[in-house]
């Protein structure tokens, strides 16, 4: 039996003469396959640096770019199906819901957030190639962040960016700013449109808590609540009485130079059955990752959530029954529309908690970049409560997850004929043509 190759170890800073016979080639031949590289006469080494953490999705991929006070922000969408009607107006509606300066309870920064589609469409239709969306920054005030170049804002990303990268963009928080979400919202608007066309999916989010003002769970009917009801007030709470209480709470901390947090509830109706996969890519796990990637998010629960721990199994289980159309349904929906990591056709609902805005106008204790204790009073323009503007962001991330999983499901489970006794096509909820008649 041939003996195993000898293990070569070379200390850092060792002279070239200490290398094994054959030099680097001998080292690479004996190295694990995952760390081998080629030198000399072999194939040239390929150095590839991936944009870690800036791309979301596997099939419907979205890469965002840009910083708060840079030239602009945007996204590149890859994997979009061809022949989908798309114009800037389709994206602008949700961008307008996200933009700053829309009311007295949001940041006073004035941006129109007007988007421009630079590639990926022809004569109003997607071409199947990457879609580039760009939004310029027009209302930067870099001078407001002079103090932040020297000191760390408590509970902000200033310190951790320095710890990780050794450098950071100071103005507006750079990449940690919520302006990064513009690219997400633009892509999410397209995802929502495709989901609606393909399967009749409707995604809505609303504010259900601001500080200690809590909207009762039974105050909103998840099956009938509408976008008009949600958008009827600046807080985006569909109950007018509670909306006024929430607005008053935000107004109080705004005038005090402080901030508060809250909760956004999201629902997704008409979601096809079968989205999500067992184990690591369970649908609720993907939704949780998506929501917790949003700025200021701190918590996620789906279905009964933490309250479900107060129930017994017989109280918590969603019993099945056959409806009039011959479909298997659940009489209750404590599962939140997901069982075993896979959508069951019931309405998906979940909640996302957002912390109080970290940048406030009150004096706080902190340290400088050269490790001196100081007191800091920050300037700049910031939301006293992020949840009213977080509503379209939550909808966006839900749409991106469902769109990606819809494409994954189609690729794996609809490549061959379905088992009609148990399965249904993902587009069966939509009886109208997806595309224009001459393109369908």
Helical percentage: 10-25%
Main sheet properties: 5 strands, antiparallel
* Strands side by side in the biggest sheet: 1-2-3-7-4
Low-confidence stretches: 1-8, 10-20, 22-40, 429-440
Based on secondary structure, the structural category is alpha+beta
Mean pLDDT: 86
Order of secondary-structure elements: HEEEHEEEEHHEEHHEHEHEEEEEEEH
The gyration radius over C-alpha positions equals: 25 Å
Number of helices, where a helix is a run of at least 4 consecutive DSSP H or I residues: 9
Strand element count:
18
How many angstroms separate the termini?
64 Å
Strand content: 15-25%
Shape assignment: globular
Topology:
Elements: H1 24-30, E1 55-56, E2 61-66, E3 72-78, H2 88-98, E4 116-119, E5 121-122, E6 125-126, E7 131-136, H3 158-165, H4 181-199, E8 202-210, E9 213-214, H5 227-230, H6 240-255, E10 262-269, H7 283-292, E11 297-302, H8 313-316, E12 320-322, E13 328-330, E14 338-339, E15 342-343, E16 348-354, E17 364-367, E18 373-376, H9 387-413
């Amino acid at each position: 039996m041939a003996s195993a190759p000898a293990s070569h170890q070379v200390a850092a800073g060792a002279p070239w003469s200490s290398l094994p016979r054959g030099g680097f080639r001998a080292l690479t031949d004996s190295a694990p396959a995952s760390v081998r590289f080629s030198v000399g006469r072999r194939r040239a080494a390929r150095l590839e640096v991936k944009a870690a953490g800036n791309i979301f999705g596997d099939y419907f991929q979205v890469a965002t770019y840009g910083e708060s006070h840079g030239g602009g922000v945007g996204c590149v969408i890859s994997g979009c199906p061809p022949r989908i009607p798309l114009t800037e107006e389709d994206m602008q509606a949700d961008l307008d819901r996200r933009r700053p300066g829309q009311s007295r309870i949001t940041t006073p920064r004035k941006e129109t957030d007007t988007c421009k589609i630079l590639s990926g469409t022809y004569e109003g239709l997607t071409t199947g190639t990457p879609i580039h969306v760009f939004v310029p920054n027009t209302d930067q005030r870099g001078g407001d962040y002079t103090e932040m170049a020297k000191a760390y804002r408590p509970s902000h990303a200033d310190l951790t960016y320095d710890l990780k990268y050794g450098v950071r963009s100071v103005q507006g928080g750079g990449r940690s700013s919520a302006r990064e979400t513009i690219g997400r919202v633009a892509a999410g608007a397209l995802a929502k449109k495709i989901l609606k066309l393909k399967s009749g999916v409707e995604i809505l989010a609303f504010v259900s808590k601001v500080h200690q003002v809590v909207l009762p769970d039974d105050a909103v009917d998840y099956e009938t609540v509408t976008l008009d009801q949600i958008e009827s007030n600046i807080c985006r709470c569909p109950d007018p009485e509670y909306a006024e209480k929430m607005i008053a709470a935000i107004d109080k901390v705004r005038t005090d130079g402080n901030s508060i947090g809250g909760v956004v509830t999201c629902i997704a109706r008409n979601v096809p059955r079968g989205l999500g996969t067992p184990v690591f890519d369970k649908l609720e796990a993907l939704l949780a990752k998506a929501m917790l990637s949003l700025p200021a998010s701190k918590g996620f629960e789906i279905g009964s959530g933490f309250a479900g721990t107060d129930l017994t199994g017989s109280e918590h289980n969603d019993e099945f029954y056959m409806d009039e159309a011959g479909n298997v349904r659940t009489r209750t929906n404590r599962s939140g529309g997901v069982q075993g990591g896979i959508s069951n056709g019931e309405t998906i609902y979940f909640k996302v908690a957002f912390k109080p805005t970290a940048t406030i106008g009150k004096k706080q204790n902190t340290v400088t970049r050269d490790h001196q204790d100081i007191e800091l009073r920050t300037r700049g323009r910031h939301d006293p409560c992020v949840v009213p503007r977080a509503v379209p962001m939550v909808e966006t991330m839900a749409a991106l997850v469902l769109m990606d999983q819809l494409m994954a499901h189609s690729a794996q489970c609809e490549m061959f004929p379905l088992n009609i006794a148990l399965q249904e096509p993902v587009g069966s909820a939509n009886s109208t043509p997806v595309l224009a008649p001459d393109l369908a």
